[in-house]
User: Which sequence fits this backbone?
């Protein structure tokens, strides 16, 4: 879809911290207004887009305020941090957790314990480790396959060319429920370069639907964050991962949270 929609990366780091339930309600309402406007431009039903609030790096009291404001799923990058929060908040029995960051095989056991969703699957070794631990736990897990659509070396994810064979190998892991694809776009103020990352993911999904193995779902496209989710929605996103526009700016720049990953974006 051609559009004049711009990124909002100029607001990167400038969102005020949400300190009350009312702050969270106001921020969530503002994000939903942006989602509805983007859906209107694209001729889509706003109900077809799921908002995933991203709580990475935020302390437990902030997460509890978000819950009180209506959030029932929270996205976390680091499995250990997410597991600690899950353990501390088990009194909130209807709160679900989505792990959206890169996973090493030795952390698969943590994710298998508590997560309801994993959005960064890009390795058969991780798929095998997750499946093995999930079988032990007697659980299943919704997963998204992460695709590197920007071509940046600093990003995780399969190349688009690697995805078809990867999908063919996944049905043997019966505890993994493949729901769709995920990507991180360029962190850029050049909206058309950002848009092309989303266009590539949607086009890849549309091609793969013709030959995906039985049981492999490709209905979902997780793409778009605080600065660019309107563009992602215009290009077909069904899940948008939004952190700063809901929780407020993080205390430190990305380089602090991802040493050696200078260009990874904020949600």
Assistant:
């Amino acid at each position: 879809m051609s559009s004049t929609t711009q990124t909002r990366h100029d607001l990167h780091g400038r969102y005020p911290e949400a300190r009350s339930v009312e702050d969270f309600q106001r921020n969530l309402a503002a994000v939903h207004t942006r989602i509805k406007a983007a859906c209107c431009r694209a001729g889509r039903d706003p109900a077809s887009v799921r908002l995933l609030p991203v709580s990475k790096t935020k302390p437990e009291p902030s997460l509890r305020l978000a819950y009180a404001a209506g959030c029932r799923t929270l996205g976390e990058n680091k499995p250990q941090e997410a597991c600690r929060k899950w353990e501390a908040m088990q009194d909130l029995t209807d709160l679900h957790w989505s792990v959206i960051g890169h996973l090493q095989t030795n952390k698969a056991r943590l994710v298998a314990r508590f997560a309801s969703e994993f959005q960064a699957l890009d390795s058969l070794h991780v798929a095998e480790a997750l499946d093995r631990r999930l079988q032990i736990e007697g659980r299943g897990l919704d997963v998204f396959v992460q695709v590197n659509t920007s071509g940046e070396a600093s990003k995780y994810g399969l190349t688009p060319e690697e995805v078809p064979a990867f999908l063919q190998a996944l049905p043997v892991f019966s505890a993994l429920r493949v729901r769709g694809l995920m990507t991180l776009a360029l962190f850029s103020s050049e909206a058309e370069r950002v848009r092309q990352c989303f266009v590539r993911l949607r086009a890849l999904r549309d091609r793969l639907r013709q030959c995906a193995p039985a049981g492999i779902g490709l209905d979902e496209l997780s793409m778009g964050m605080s600065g660019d989710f309107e563009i992602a929605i215009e290009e077909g996103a069904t899940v948008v991962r939004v952190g700063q526009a809901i929780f407020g700016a993080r205390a430190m720049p990305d380089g602090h949270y991802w040493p050696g990953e200078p260009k990874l974006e904020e949600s």
Q: What stands out?
A: The domain at 9-251 is CATH 3.20.20.10 (TIM Barrel). The chain has one domain: 9-251. The mean pLDDT is 92. The beta strands are 50-53, 73-76, 96-99, 117-121, 141-146, 176-182, 220-222, 239-242.
